[in-house]
Amino acid sequence: MRKLRGKPYLFILGLVCFFVCSTAVGASLQMGDNAPLFTLKVLNSKATEQAYVNLNDYAKPLDEGGKKATFLTFFATYCEPCKRELPYLVELQKAYASEGYQVVVVTIDKDAAEVAKAKSMVTELDASFPVLNDRFGIVARRYGVESLPMSFLIDQAGMVKMTNSGFGEDGAIKLLTQTRMALGLPLGAPAPESLWPFVGVPPEVQAERDAAVKKAAKKKTRKKRTKRRKKKAGAKR
Fold this sequence. Notes:
The protein has eight helices and seven strands. It has helices at residues 2-26, 45-48, 80-96, 112-124, 138-142, 171-183, 196-199, 203-236; strands at residues 39-41, 52-54, 69-75, 101-107, 131-133, 150-155, 160-165. Strands 5-4-3-6-7 form a five-stranded mixed beta sheet, covered by helices on one side. It has a two-stranded antiparallel sheet with strand order 1-2. The radius of gyration is 27 Å and the shape is elongated.
């Protein structure tokens, strides 16, 4: 009788534990939470010269390879906003790598063909940051990823400082602002020129360009007028 009573009891206890644990793991991370550690295989290992990446690799002094800020984003090849975000992240990494900034992309694609497609995409973009494969979604569940792209800005101590969901029209400017805040850089400074296609040309630069276009147009108009005058003068003679 004890065995018969014990089995249902253990089964119910197991279900309770499963749901409690699933809720804890699946809950979306918030600012101030510690970022769950993980180790995943690098898809573009030739570009990064890394076979695997452990999030802990970046939580150390800068002179030992640590980073001031790690931008961790979850990606999939079927996600259109992810595809728009990816080339911007390539330029963002190039612009701020020297300041201690690190982009890490985690693809949750399961099919081998889609994983290969993700690898091809970052190779074509010449991405220098690691692209990892979370094929079974284990890491995504730890971070409570509910939509794509979903990103987390993690400081040098391994704490989540900012979170983002999606990549809309203001996504590029939003990420630029967060990046500067995380690195302790002036928010009002002009963006690096490589980022202008994404965040827009600075107003002062655009004003200079507009002035140059107007000046060139006036010069062209004057040349045409001068040419017409000379032509008329020659005809009278």
